[in-house]
Every structure is written in C-alpha cells, then in structure tokens.
Amino acid sequence: MARKIAFINYKGGVGKTSLLVNIASSLAQMGHRVLICDFDTQSNASIWLLKLDRWNKINSAGDGMIYSIFNPGDVTVKDILLKDVVLSKAGEALLPGLDLVPTTFNLVDLENEYTGDPARPHYVIFRDQLAEVEDNYDYILFDCPPNILRASQCGIFSANEIYVPANPDALSLIGFTLLVEKLGKFHQLSASFRNAAQGVAARVQGIIFNSIKSGVDIDVPRMRMQLRLNQFRSAKRAAPAAKLFQQIVRDAMVVRRAVTLGLPVNLVKASTAGTEEETVVDDYRKVAMELVRHGDRVND
Ligand SMILES: Nc1ncnc2c1ncn2[C@@H]1O[C@H](COP(=O)(O)OP(=O)(O)OP(=O)(O)O)[C@@H](O)[C@H]1O
Ligand SMILES: [Mg+2]
Predict the structure, then answer these.
(1) Is the separation of the CB atoms in 201 and 55 below 8 Å?
(2) Fewest CB atoms less than 10 Å from the CB: which of 10, 181, 214, 284?
(3) How far is 205 from 170, CA to CA, in rounded Å?
(4) Best substitution site from 10, 11, 14, 17 to test ligand 1's pocket, by max atoms within 8 Å of Cβ?
(5) Residue 25 pLDDT more than 70?
C-alpha cells in the first residue's frame, strides 16, 4: 500500500517544495515508485520538474488540467498524471519511477470560483480519483502551500502522514503550532467523509530542519521544536511516534541552482568531488532513508 504523505508548514518559504522534490527524487533513485501531487497554485514543483517551456504549454491550455478534475465528467487524476516526469533535452527519462500530477495557475479558482457540491467536497473527489492510481506507487507526496485552504485540503485529506519542514527560527515554530491547530479543525470538519480504507486522519509524524547554514548552532531551535512536539504528542495532537528528524539539510547554493536547471539536486552534476553539491545530495538521501524507516512506526 502506498504511503501518502503531505509536506506542510503554515510558514512560507521554509523549503517544503525543495525538500519534497529532492526527497521524492532520492526515493525514486532507491527504486521506489513515487508520485508527486502538486497542490500549490504557485506551481513551483511543477515548473521545476517540467521546466518552464513544458509547463507553459499545459498552463496555457488550462482546460483539462488539475482544476478540471473537480468538474464531473471532465478529466480525472489518471488522465493528467505525467509518468517519468524528469526528461533530458532529448526527451529521455532521467529518473524512471518519478511521476507528477502537475498544477497550473487556474487551480487558484478552486479557492474562489468553485462552488461544488457540499455532499461531495473537492477533497472527496480528489481522494476517489487518486484511489484509481495509488496501487501503482510506494510513496505519494503532496506539496501544499502554507495554509489549509481547499487545494491543501485535497492533499491533507488523502494523506496518512504529515511532515513539517522548518527553519531554525521562531516563525517556523509558530507556523508548526498554527498548523496543528488548523489541522485539528479540518479533520473535524471532514470526519464524516472519511472511508474505512483511509484509516485514521493524518497526524504530524516528523519535523525536518532545512537550509541550515554552516557554523550556525541549532541546538536551541531544536530544543524548542522538540519541546513543542512533546506537548503536542502528550495532548494526542501529533502522532505518538512523531519525531524531530536526526538528519538536517544544509543550506547549499546548488538547491537554488537545481530549480533553474529543472532537475532534482541528485541529477545535477557535481562540479568537483567533495563539494557542497555532494554533501547536500547526501543530506536529502539520508532524510529520505529516515522517512523510509519511520514507516515502521507510523501506526504506533
Ligand atoms: N537547503 C537549501 N539550501 C539553499 N536554498 C534552499 C534550500 N532549501 C530551500 N532553498 C531555497 O529557499 C527558497 C524557498 O524554498 P521552497 O520554495 O522549497 O520553500 P516552500 O516552503 O515550498 O515555499 P512556499 O511556502 O512559497 O511554498 C527557494 O528559493 C529554495 O531554492
Ligand atoms: Mg512550496
């Protein structure tokens, strides 16, 4: 059964998208079958993996893309899903096993114009369509914006696990706190729509520190985050096994460069051995391995 995982923090810019894309890529390199669902209307993950030219084409087509899945009788998730999404200039698959449900800018209409049917909310429509493809995957990862509005709700409702990317600062801690509050409210609101196959609603399973600059001591931010996590665990508002990841991801220029190149970091050629490129690739790989191992504890 696929592990369905949302990456979210109420704080923007902490590295949700870059962690998700690079962890997904590490998992695919380990041989896992991975699907990324982009639920951020900024389309960052989609533009990154498709590169601007390819993404522009689907964005300007508009109809038939992700917003259309919410119109009954139009397209469904399996129609818009792109297999082996990372391609070379010549069009060959560079990372077989990494697929994408891409987003286009009109997903924003889900927040404004969409009226839908209260008896069948948008997140139920998405869950039912995802069910048609999920057996093809080991991991399904949802990239969410820093809120729990409708687009995010689709990912969160389908997910079984939540991971919170964070920077070592007070705002990330506030973002995490706010997330747990809003998550509780959304789970209450959507409880009657859950089905038996979904299991329990997704709880926070882990916090991952990202963008750590060299020479910066993160002991105090780690301690503060751990304390907050312990409080939420005691109050049963986070999973019993929820943990602060041992592995952190360092700050490295190549992460920003990878976006411009349209490649996950592990496909960017290191200029020389032992450089920050190699170090940060190793960080992502170790975070991905920690995520794989945590799978044994999710149902504790
Ligand atoms: N480890 C890192 N080293 C260097 N730069 C990083 C690192 N992680 C993320 N960044 C950069 O920080 C910026 C924000 O990252 P990202 O887009 O992943 O955050 P986000 O949480 O998804 O943002 P949003 O809330 O807008 O969705 C990007 O420019 C990204 O390239
Ligand atoms: Mg993002």
Answers:
(1) no
(2) 214
(3) 20
(4) 17
(5) yes
- Ordered by where they begin, the domains of the chain are 3-295 (3.40.50.300)
Average pLDDT over all residues of the chain = 95
Q: What is the DSSP string of 133-161?
A: TGGG-SEEEEE--SS-SHHHHHHHHH-SE
| Closest ligand 1 atom to 212 CA | 1
pLDDT at 127 over 70: yes
Across the range 236-243, mean pLDDT stands at 97
Percent of the chain at pLDDT exceeding 90: 92
| CA 248 to ligand 1 centroid distance, Å | 14
Ligand 1: which residues within 6 Å by Cβ?
Answer: 12-18, 40, 44, 145-146, 210-211, 249, 251-252, 255-256, 259
The closest ligand to the CA of 214 turns out to be 1
Distance from the Cα of residue 166 to its chain's centroid: 13
Burial class (CB in 10 A: 0-12, 13-18, 19+), 178: middle
